[in-house]
Amino acid sequence: MAYTIDRYPSEDSPRLGAMTLHPTPESVPRARRWFRKFITPYDPACSVEDCVLMISELVTNAIRYGQADDPWVVRVEWFREKTSLRVEVHNPGFPANVRLRKPDANDAHGRGLLLVDSIAESWHSGPSRFGGTLVSFVVADAWPE
């Protein structure tokens, strides 16, 4: 199995959906497609394409920097919190390694969190409840009050 998706979250939960991805490059476009498909029925007022870009960056980082001795997965979850959208990306890497970088113009990598930092209302990194690393972002005013 390459992936799973939670299409039917509980009505009393703020979680709108979740996906579990294998740590392969093919999972990045899959995450973009799924998020577009499963957020659309909730009719968000925010830019879905901005969210897709941020998810793409965070899933790429999770795949690149996640580490585990056993086979592992990347988890993506999205939540509605009042009028905001919060997206979490989990991987088994070490939380202290998440930081904003200041790449030189010639650097091929290191801009993902800068994009998230410039687009999202806020972002956070720390320990994941699944073990490993959580990186999340919040988009304010994703839905009207």
TrEMBL record:
Pfam families: HATPase_c_2. Residues 23-126 form the Histidine kinase/HSP90-like ATPase domain. PANTHER family: ANTI-SIGMA-F FACTOR RSBW, ANTI-SIGMA-F FACTOR RSBW-RELATED. GO terms for molecular function: protein serine/threonine kinase activity. Keywords: Kinase, Serine/threonine-protein kinase, Transferase. InterPro entries: Anti-sigma-factor_SerPK, HATPase_C_sf, HATPase_dom. Gene3D superfamilies: Histidine kinase-like ATPase, C-terminal domain (3.30.565.10). The keyword Kinase applies. This is Histidine kinase/HSP90-like ATPase domain-containing protein.
